[in-house]
Amino acid sequence: MMISTKGRYAIRVMTELAGHDSDERIPLKDIAASQNISLKYLESIMSLLVKNNLVDGVSGKGGGYRLLRPADKYSLLEILKVTEGDLEPVSCTAMEGGECDRLGKCPTYPVWKELSDLITDFLGNKTLYDLMGEEK
């Protein structure tokens, strides 16, 4: 599993938004400049975050983006699931509703399941607030 730039940038952008007043909207061009992300690529990321109700976006004069909740209410897991989709290390741990036909006789499954649980637990317990550093 490798987190893409989309996932990493989404977390960076949301951490930046978390450092601002909750009522303040930050213009997209300002975010792009401070994060050194192309405006076009950032637009696609922000569109995804708005669509999944992670941020609020308003266009036009006085528009921009802001978080919808406090920073400690966003887990990194939640953000990465929006941007990355499946975070499972192998396909057999990602099988929703069905199990691998080798599950009972596969000696490697317990390792992959444990890794999956560790990833989920780790990212599920880290929040934007944890990343804010001095901005807290």
Question: What would your notes on this structure say?
Answer:
This protein has 136 residues and is mainly alpha-helical. It has 6 helices and 2 strands; from the N terminus they run αααββααα. It has helices at residues 5-18, 28-35, 39-51, 76-84, 109-124, 128-131; strands at residues 55-58, 64-67. α1 crosses α4.
- Helical element count? 6
Q: What distance separates the N and C termini?
A: 30 Å
Spatial strand sequence of the major β-sheet: 1-2
In terms of per-residue confidence, which ranges show pLDDT below 50 for 5 or more consecutive residues?
none
What is the CATH-assigned architecture of the domain at 5-87 and 127-135? Orthogonal Bundle
CATH class of the domain at 5-87 and 127-135: Mainly Alpha
Q: What's the rounded overall pLDDT mean?
A: 91
Helix content: 40-55%
The name of the CATH superfamily of the domain at 5-87 and 127-135 reads Winged helix-like DNA-binding domain superfamily/Winged helix DNA-binding domain
Q: Spell the H/E element sequence.
A: HHHEEHHH
Q: What is the number of strand segments?
A: 2
Estimated radius of gyration: 17 Å
Topology:
Layout: H1 5-18, H2 28-35, H3 39-51, E1 55-58, E2 64-67, H4 76-84, H5 109-124, H6 128-131
Antiparallel strand pairs: 1-2
Helix pairs in contact: 1-4
Spell out the key features of this protein.
mainly alpha, Arc Repressor Mutant, subunit A, two-stranded antiparallel sheet
In short:
The protein is mainly alpha-helical and 136 residues long.
